[in-house]
Amino acid sequence: MSQINTQQVRRCPNEPVIIGEAATPMYKHLLLPMDDSPASESAVRCGVRLARQMHAKVTALHIEPPQRASGGGTADVDRARDMLNYAARVAHAAGVECSMIRAAGDQPHEVIVSSALKLDCDLIVMASHRRGAVAALLFGSQTQQVLAHCDLPVLVVS
Questions:
Q1: FRET partner for 153 with CA separation of 20 to 30 A, picked from 33, 110, 135, 143?
Q2: 87 and 47 in contact (C-beta within 8 Å)?
């Protein structure tokens, strides 16, 4: 992305703008992968606003490691349920249809990509966790992995 484009993207308002009301909506089903972070909550709000403007539906997806999903304590289950319920409340308040999925996987990016394809989603809206350069280098980024392994458009919310 050129320097000019990067600056333009950073100056965009939080509310997505749809030009040409008579146009056919570009997206009909948005996948909102989430974890337990405030960044995910922000991405959910952005995805729901976009879905409302496009008359699209959303699917909230919470992913956790298999060992936590199968033998995790009730706190883990409650946290996942709370995050999914948060997405459902935001969508309901905006008048957007929302379904919820709780999934387990060692590689969250693989679960995100396969879920998007299986559910026939046409856009993934996910958070970017601002980690330092060293942490990103050592641990990678699920967002980067999704971008690298998915042919669908991905809207990254920071």
A1: 135
A2: no
